[in-house]
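User: Hey, my collaborator sent me this sequence without any context and asked if I could get a structure. I don't really work with proteins. Can you help?
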Amino acid sequence: MKKFIILSVAVVILSGCVVQQRKQTTTLIPGAGIFKTGDKGEQWAVKGDLLATGGSAQKFGYANVTFMKFDPQDASTVYVGTENALYYSYSRGEGWLKTLANQGTINDIAIDPQDKCTLYAAVHNKIFKSIDCSRSWQLMHFSSLANQYFAAILVSQQDSDHIFVGASDGALIHSRNAGVAWDVLRYVDSPIYKFVPHPHEPSSFYMVDQRDSVLKTSDLGVTWKILADLPVHTPAGVVKVDERKNPILLGQLPGARTYMDMTFDTSQKDGILYASGYGLFRLIDGEYWQEIEILNKPQQARIFSIAIDGTTGKSLYFATTGAFYRSENGGLDWTVRALPASGMPKILKMAPDNPSELYLAFYAPAK
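Assistant: No problem. I've predicted the 3D structure and written it out in structure-token form, which is a compact way to encode the shape of the chain:
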């Protein structure tokens, strides 16, 4: 039987916000921003100080965040996109610098795996490149198509001359020469949301689109495997079957193709933690999905963001509107905490070198 653990004395959840904890009223900061914890979500602090050469202190603490990424070559460096600028920190979020201001929404960046000072940014309908650690940017590509924007960008781990861009109209755009020339590799007939590199297979990466959810390529985007077509196991490890005793595939579960968030599970050779409209799943060695039981029934909880300690694969985290959940034993038991802000907990990231250090970014949708 699943245990429901609440470490605080009293937690009341009403209308999407936690109103009391440890017998004291918790004041939620409205809107958006970035928060950091060093103790797995027990205490959070807002991190939005801009580094300035002079004058009064400035902050971007309540900017709507579109993405957050750590530099895989330097765990102290983190990048954050917003609707009007790219922010980056060399001090784990303690101070931020601003670039690419007023160019449009910064939807994604990609870092060259061989040179951390070479970056590519997907900025609305444009692709920019920097070769000097964000000090200057060069426009490499833009789209003149109406309603097309670039949502995701990735540099190949195998060959950094290969750049991939995912567009809102389903175009998978490819450059073979570090952004000098571009062509459409294929159309997936569905908006592309995200790319995730495979840390163990340099020629492989994952793509998220609206129709098929998560797909994997092992040949630099030539062919793709739809992971929603893999079977599902119960939390106890038993294959889910329908009334005819046929294995149930992930995509057959209501809401399971509705992507919410995903991250690679480095504790496995080929593993993913995936949040969907149905619930939370873990890909086991690329062969099947195992459902992770949470405190809500399927389709009841809207999981916006997730994180996993890839060292052991046991520490799991996710955020919904109003609550932060933590499990230290792979989802058998859950601890619930209040969120530090009232916006949508859109992004949850774990520091690559410290599983106790988490970053939570909020988004405040326009009213």
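In plain terms: The chain has a mean pLDDT of 88. You can pass these tokens on to your collaborator as they are.
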